[in-house]
Structures are given as C-alpha cells and as structure tokens.
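In the current project phase, the collection of sequences with tokenised folds has grown. A sample record is quoted in full directly below:
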Amino acid sequence: MIEVSRLNGSVFVLNADLIETVEANPDTVVTLLNGHRYVVKETPGEIMERAAAYRAKRGLPLSLT
C-alpha cells in the first residue's frame, strides 16, 4: 500500500499491487487493474518509487512481468 494525495490535498492509501498504468497528461492518473482511475498530485516517478519501495519492503520483485 502506498500513500498518495488527491488534488484537493486529501490523502488516501492505494494498493500498489493493483496498479496497471500511471500517466501524466498533465495531471497524474493512476489506473488499477480493476479499471478504477485516480487523479493524484504525485508525479509518475514518485508513484513508481513508492510502489518499488513498497514491493522491496515486502521482498517482492519490482515487476510482475
């Protein structure tokens, strides 16, 4: 789970194992495997770093492929 911020500043926790794509257009949009989409303040790079740190902390490989 990684912590992210909505554009209004509220913080929520996202299941990093369910992230399918992260796009910047120009807001950052995180799309999960179930199709849910979230617009967040963090950059795609920050999302990737947090997801990688979360997976490393759990001893999981950085990529599912």
